[in-house]
Every structure is written in structure tokens, then in C-alpha cells.
């Protein structure tokens, strides 16, 4: 109502600010304000206050809604999936009351896995939550059913409900959306992802080229080799750098072959007869040639070890080169099995064992991992090459000696911990209750198995001064696990 704006302005700037003419006001208001104007005993301030009162009350009375008779009337299609049970619905209410995003995601994932829907009562709330939390969207879409699809069309904020085909997103999506589509396709069909990128490459900006190349890090392989080699002539330095980084992960690429050629000459296994030929003396000779091709250093190999390094400059160069070639190269170079190769490095080139371990991670040669598990060094990238049980066993081995780092990696595992591992980890976390607090467990409750509640009650901190704080955290954790247990029971999980 325009007249109310005049009232506000006049109140702020003074009655010298003109009010709208009576003719500009609604008929019901103009009739009263005309009478007010006719009262000679009132000054202009009094007239303003009386007019403002009339306009305010008129405004408070409301307005008739806009009538539009040509709006289409639609209804939701009948649901195909059944709604979840009363027990599951009750647990969902408890999850909302706890305001725990991780448990809500768990509830939705179990509902989806069981092929059920949440009740329509929750639609507005869950559609709003998924609008803010992208991770929830696929689950809300799957568990919302046809009624959620219908309702989403009535609110522009819920338009995410209609999922575009990947091909359409690739062609018309925002830069960050196209990168995500390429990453997902890379997981399921690396060759098709490669073809899509080739088709649009000439039209991409320099910045988008770098981001899209990073999406190829998953499943990069020989099928990408020829095309990536061609990108080394690109104008943009960042594009060339990213292409080179990818080529360093592909056995048989020109840069990996260069490294192997240099190592073939520089690191040699020597076997010589000793003690009148009765014994064989074994050694690894490590010596760079007098002249090293400068292209090696331009590819990212650094020349200087730095003042704090335990390696010489030459040793540092060799360390980098060893970490940058497939471990299988040494099977040929040393004419030995993987177990023998590791043993040779342990005995005769111990300062390069860690470089060999890095190469195992870089080239994802998981068959080499067992030969490093007894090493004192911890290789974080090995976790991605192990089965869940092996991951936990590997982390447990280093937990007492490097608790904080190992806890950091344990939290980043993708699967729920096994009970014994969970209890071992929680015994360590109990010693840091300010770091591993209520907020922490709210976020990571999916990792902790609900069945450990009885044993959890017996875990205490080593520091008596922290006991009270830990007890409060533990009480909250038990509450969350109890709710998690109800979620699983509701869907018979």
C-alpha cells in the first residue's frame, strides 16, 4: 500500500513532507481523511497522526488475494512404493528432535534401501533441508515419492527435485556441475568421460580445462595416454602442468619412461662372488650419470634436498625418481620378485624404501602392499588399496605410537568401524574429550556401531581432570547410538 510508505517517510522527515491526496487513497480511507482535513481546530501534525491511524488500521485489515482463474489444477500421481511403518516414522520424529544431520541421512538411506517412502507430513521440512544440504537430495527424491515430485513443482526453491540427465548437465550446466558429472561418469565409464571431454575441449576456457582435467585423476590410464601427451603443447601453463601430473600416474607415458631410463642407468643391483666364490655379495649401486637431461628437472624433479634433509642432493633426486616409476620396473631391473625387490631395498638401500612405498600408492599396485606392512613407516595412501578389515588392522598397529594422526585417518574411513576397532579408537578419543566432543560425534556417528553401548560405558579417560568432561560426551554418544539402534531396528537392518 503506497500510502503507508508516505506515512513512514513523513514520520521520519517531518510533516512538511506532503501526504498523498485523498483522491489517491482507497475510497473507504479517502472518505475519512476528507473529514479529518475539514476539521479546522486540528493542526497539520494532528491531522497527520489521525490519517496515519486510519491508514494503519486499513492496512491491518488485510487485502483480498489476487484472483487468477486460469491456474492449472494438478494432482500427484499415485504412489508406487509403500509408506514406512509407524515405528520408522516415530524414529524419524526423534531424529528431527535431536537435529542430527548424520542420523537423518542414515534414516533416509535405510528407508531408500528398503524401498519405502516417508509420510507426506514431512515433505515441506525435508524438501527445505535438502535444498540447503545437497548430500540429502538424492535420498529425499528417492524417499519422497510422486507427491514430493508434484509438490516440488510449486516452489522454485525445490526445483532441484527434477534431475537433469548427465548429458544435459554436461552440455548446459554450470562449470562446477559439469566437473561433478565428469567425476561420476569417470567412476562408471572412464572411456565415455574421456570422449565427452575431447568433444568439448576446444570450447573450454583455460580455467575449466584445469578443473576438468582434475576429474580425470580417477581411473586415469592408458586410454588417456595419447590425448594427454598432446596436451603438453597447450598454451596455458596450468593446463600443461595438470596434464603432466596425470601422465606421471600412467605407466608407459613419455615422462615415466624418461624416469625409468635414468634409473636404469643410476640404480643397479650388483651381485659379486666373495670368500673364494662360496658366497655372493649383493649391493645396490646408486649413482647419477655425469649429465642429466634438464627435461627431468623441468618435469618437477627438484635438484636440492634442502638443509634439513637427511639425504644428499643426489640421493634426493633418486628418491623422487624411485617414487615416480611403477614398482614393477624393479622386477625387471633387479630380475627379482616383488618380495625380493623390497628386501633388497631394505638391506642395501634403506633410505629409498619409503620412495618405493610412495610408488606403490601412486600407481595403485595393491599386490605390493603386503610387503610393506611390517615397515616402521606409515603409508596413508595404502588405506585406499586395502579391504576394510585390513585398513583397521593397519591403523591399529600405529595407534599407540601416533594416536592423533591415526585418529584423523580413522575418521575418514568410508565404512562403519568393526566393534573391536571402534572400542580401541574410542579409548584413545576419551583422552581428548575437548576435541572429540558432542559436535564431533554428531557428525561422525555413522562410523560407530550401535552394538558397543554396553562396553562404551566402561571406557574412561586416563586423565582424572578430564573425567567429568568425558562422561558428558560419553553420555551424549550413548544417546546417539541408542537412536541409531532404533533407526536400524525400524528398517530391520
Automatic annotation (TrEMBL):
Listed Pfam families: DUF5691
Protein name: Uncharacterized protein
Organism listed in the record: Mucilaginibacter gracilis
Amino acid at each position: 500500500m503506497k500510502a503507508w510508505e508516505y506515512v513512514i517517510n513523513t514520520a521520519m522527515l517531518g510533516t512538511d513532507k506532503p501526504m498523498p491526496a485523498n483522491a489517491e487513497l482507497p475510497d473507504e480511507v479517502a472518505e475519512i481523511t476528507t473529514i479529518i482535513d475539514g476539521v479546522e481546530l486540528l493542526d497539520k501534525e494532528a491531522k497527520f497522526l489521525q490519517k496515519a491511524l486510519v491508514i494503519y488500521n486499513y492496512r491491518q485489515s488485510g487485502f483480498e488475494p489476487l484472483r487468477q482463474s486460469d491456474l492449472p489444477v494438478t494432482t500427484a500421481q499415485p504412489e508406487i512404493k509403500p509408506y514406512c511403518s509407524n515405528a520408522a516414522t516415530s524414529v524419524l520424529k526423534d531424529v528431527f528432535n535431536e537435529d542430527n544431520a548424520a542420523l537423518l541421512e542414515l534414516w533416509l538411506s535405510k528407508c531408500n534401501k528398503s524401498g519405502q517412502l516417508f509420510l507426506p507430513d514431512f515433505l515441506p521440512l525435508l524438501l527445505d533441508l535438502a535444498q540447503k544440504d545437497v548430500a540429502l537430495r538424492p535420498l529425499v527424491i528417492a524417499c519422497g515419492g510422486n507427491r514430493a515430485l508434484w509438490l516440488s513443482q510449486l516452489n522454485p526453491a525445490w526445483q532441484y527435485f527434477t534431475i537433469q540427465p548427465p548429458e544435459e548437465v554436461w552440455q548446459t550446466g554450470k562449470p562446477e556441475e559439469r566437473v561433478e558429472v565428469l567425476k561420476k561418469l569417470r567412476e562408471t565409464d572412464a572411456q565415455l568421460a574421456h570422449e565427452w571431454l575431447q568433444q568439448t575441449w576446444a570450447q573450454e576456457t583455460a580455467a575449466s580445462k584445469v578443473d576438468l582435467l582434475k576429474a580425470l585423476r580417477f581411473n586415469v590410464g592408458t586410454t588417456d595416454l595419447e590425448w594427454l601427451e598432446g596436451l603438453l603443447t597447450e598454451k596455458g601453463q596450468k593446463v600443461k602442468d595438470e596434464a603432466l601430473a596425470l601422465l606421471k600416474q600412467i605407466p608407459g607415458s613419455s615422462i615415466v619412461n624418461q624416469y625409468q631410463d635414468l634409473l636404469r642407468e643410476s640404480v643397479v643391483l650388483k651381485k659379486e662372488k666373495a670368500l673364494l666364490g662360496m658366497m655372493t655379495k649383493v649391493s645396490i649401486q646408486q649413482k647419477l650419470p655425469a649429465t642429466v637431461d634438464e627435461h627431468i628437472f623441468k618435469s618437477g624433479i627438484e635438484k636440492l634436498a634442502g638443509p634439513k634433509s637427511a639425504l644428499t642432493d643426489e640421493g634426493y633426486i633418486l628418491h623422487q625418481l624411485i617414487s615416480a616409476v611403477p614398482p614393477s620396473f624393479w622386477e625387471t631391473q633387479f630380475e627379482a620378485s616383488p618380495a625380493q625387490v623390497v628386501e633388497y631395498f631394505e638391506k642395501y638401500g634403506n633410505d629409498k624404501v619409503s620412495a618405493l612405498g610412495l610408488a606403490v600408492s601412486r600407481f595403485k599396485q595393491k599386490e605390493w602392499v603386503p610387503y610393506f606392512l611390517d615397515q616402521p613407516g606409515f603409508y596413508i595412501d595404502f588405506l585406499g588399496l586395502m579391504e576394510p578389515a585390513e585398513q583397521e588392522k593397519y591403523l591399529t598397529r600405529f595407534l599407540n605410537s601416533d594416536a592423533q594422526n591415526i585418529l584423523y585417518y580413522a575418521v575418514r574411513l568410508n565404512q562403519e568401524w568393526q566393534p573391536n576397532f571402534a572400542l580401541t579408537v574410542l579409548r584413545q578419543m576419551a583422552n581428548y574429550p575437548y576435541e572429540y566432543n558432542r559436535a564431533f560425534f554428531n557428525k561422525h556417528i555413522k562410523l560407530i556401531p550401535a552394538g558397543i553401548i554396553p562396553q562404551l560405558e566402561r571406557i574412561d579417560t586416563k586423565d582424572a581432570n578430564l573425567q567429568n568432561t568425558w562422561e558428558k560426551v560419553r553420555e551424549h554418544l550413548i544417546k546417539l547410538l541408542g537412536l541409531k539402534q532404533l533407526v536400524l531396528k525400524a528398517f530391520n537392518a
